[in-house]
Each structure stands twice: as C-alpha cells, then as structure tokens.
Design a protein that fits this description.
Subcellular location: Bacterial flagellum basal body; Cell membrane
Shape: elongated
Family: Belongs to the FliM family.
Keywords: Bacterial flagellum, Cell membrane, Cell projection, Chemotaxis, Cilium, Flagellar rotation, Flagellum, Membrane
Protein name: Flagellar motor switch protein FliM
GO molecular function: cytoskeletal motor activity
CATH superfamily of one domain: CheC-like
CATH architecture of one domain: 3-Layer(aba) Sandwich
Structural class: alpha+beta
Number of helices: 11
Length: 332
C-alpha cells in the first residue's frame, strides 16, 4: 500500500531539500535499487488474487442460497453474507475457532479430500432452538450436544451443503455429502498443519443472534480445478454439441408428446336468465356463419382452419388451411 504524505510532511520534505539536508540524487538512487520482500514459507501463497476474487463470487451466491434455505427451515429472519475470503495455514485456522464448536466435515465428489463447514455454537444453538419450537435464543452456557441435537444438526447441515453444489456449478460439478459432525477441533484432521487453506467467513444473523460460519477448503482438495477459478474461464461459455444418439432420443420423445386439439364451432353470449330458461329444442345462435371455417387450436394457439363433417359415422374435421407460426386467435 502506498503511503500518503500529509501537508506538514510535504512542507518538511521541501524545506529539507531547499536547505541541502537531503540530496535529490540520493533519493533517486534509493528508488532504483531492488526492493527485497520477506517471504514466510510457513504461509505459502497458493491462491492468487484472481482465485480469491472467484471464490468470493462463488460464495456470495452460496451465502444467498443459504439465507433462503435457513429462512425456510427456521421460519424466521436469517441474514448471511460473505465477510472475508483469505488464505492461511490450516493450523492457524484450528487455533482461531472455539474449543467447542460445530464442525461439519464433508467430501465433494469427484474432488479428493475433505473440507469443513464450521458453525459457531451461538448460531447452531439458535437453529436448534427454532427447530425445537423456541424463539431462536442462544444459551449462555454451551454444553455438549445430546444425541437428538446431533441428529437434528446433521440433517439440517446435510441439506445445507446441497446449496454448495448449486453455487459451484459454474466452475465444476461437485456433489457434497456430509461425512461426520464433530464438536472438538482437536479430533478433526483434514490437512497438515502447514497446508494452505482458503477460508471463507460468512457473517450470520438469526433473529437477534449473530455469529460466524466458516468454510475451510484445503488447497490440495481444489487444486485439480484451480485453473477453472480464473476470471477468463468463468466467463467463457462452452457450447456443448449433441451427439446423433442424443438428437434422435430427443426427437423420439418430442414425437410421442401429446397435445390437446380443440375445434371451436363459435362463440355466443347469453344472460343467466336465458341460460336458466334453456330447454330441449332451443337454438343458440353462434357468431360464425356455416360457410366460415372452424378455428382449430393446438394448446392455446390457433394452428389450422377446417371444415366439419362425418367419416364412417364419426364426427371429423377436414383441414383446409394452415395458420402461420406464432399467430394467435384474437379474443372476441
């Protein structure tokens, strides 16, 4: 980041140059010298800025899908948004989360390896309280999960992971599945201590309860699809050509599709009094002459003009005209 000088610092610098305390040539030499930047091998940079921007876009969509899902399930106000996307060592992530938390360990076929969706206890217990008929309040003291609470959380987060599939579909077809639910980070080992992970932090608000949901993705897991996280790849659409077999199968299904065909003799309007007074032998006058063709509709669209008749003792219709594609009959 470039430092911006204040007006006092600029005046002091100009005064030093005018008095000869500082030499302008020396300043130029310092600028031309190579700058050395320290590199920490324990915090290896595996994700470029382009990758992080792509991950941000993907998980902003994931946050919107989660908001919709949890709002429906909990039937209360839920707001989830991406706060930060960063890369850091796995060991640092483990040290940053509470000693007692909700860890949803999952896999996403065909990717190899495991990822984790960490949910702060305040958020998880607020969800439990809503699902069990409460107001969504979070307890002041966090205890170990009971067997029933464990099953409830497994079910709700297992379905929540399905939204991750929808969010990632622009990059790759992945199929997340919950493997286990843990509460102690010490019992979870999805990567080596120095492995780089992408950490997506989601700010979560359920009613009056707030907390964080963190998605931890080890670099080794998504390394095979890393090239697809480039902006160029995400915005280039690939045209998929259908094979002859797919075309024939589609044609066969279309040919078997059934459509309603309606031949209208005409229209007429009568009052309710007249309708109630109808008897056998009464005649209703239609708006069409016997010399005019009948309108034949396929679905809701006018497609043919025809003439009524009888063939082998059955009512029939002879097509006399084909109406141009897309023409609809005007309401009368």
């Amino acid at each position: 980041m470039v430092d911006v000088l204040s007006q006092n610092e600029i005046d002091a610098l100009l005064a030093a140059l005018s008095s000869g305390e500082m030499d302008a040539e020396e300043l130029k030499k310092e600028e031309t010298q190579k700058k050395v930047r320290s590199y920490d091998f324990k915090r290896a940079t595996r994700f470029s800025k382009d990758h992080l921007r792509s991950l941000t876009r993907i998980h902003e969509n994931f946050a919107r899908l989660l908001t919709t899902y949890f709002s429906t399930q909990l039937r209360t106000f839920v707001q989830i948004s991406v706060v930060q996307v960063e890369q850091l060592p796995y060991d640092e992530f483990i040290r940053s989360i509470p000693k007692m938390t909700i860890l949803n360990i999952f896999e996403a076929d065909p990717l190899e390896g495991r990822m984790v969706l960490e949910v702060h206890p305040n958020v998880a217990y607020a969800m439990l309280d809503r699902l069990l008929g409460g107001t969504g309040a979070s307890p002041t003291k966090i205890n170990a999960l009971t067997e029933i609470e464990n099953i409830i959380l497994e079910r709700i987060f297992s379905r929540a992971l399905e939204t991750l599939q929808e969010a990632w579909k622009t990059v790759a077809d992945v199929f997340p599945s919950l493997e286990a639910l843990e509460t102690n980070p010490q019992f979870m080992q999805i990567a080596s201590a120095n492995d780089t992970i992408a950490l997506i932090s989601l700010s979560t608000k359920i009613g009056d309860t707030t907390g964080m949901i963190n998605l931890c993705i080890p670099h080794v897991v998504i390394e095979p699809i890393m090239p697809r996280l480039s902006v160029h790849h995400m915005f280039v659409t690939h045209k998929k050509t259908k094979t002859d077999e797919e075309t024939e199968a589609l044609q066969s299904r279309v040919n078997k599709a059934k459509l309603p065909i309606i031949a209208e003799l005409g229209h007429s309007s009568i009052s309710i009094r007249e309708f109630l007074g109808l008897a056998v032998g009464d005649v209703i006058s239609l708006d069409k002459s016997v010399d005019e063709g009948l309108h034949v509709k396929v679905g809701e669209k006018l497609k043919f003009i025809g003439s009524p008749g009888i063939v082998k003792g059955k009512v029939a219709l002879q097509i006399s005209e084909i109406v141009s594609e897309g023409v609809e009959e005007d309401d009368e």
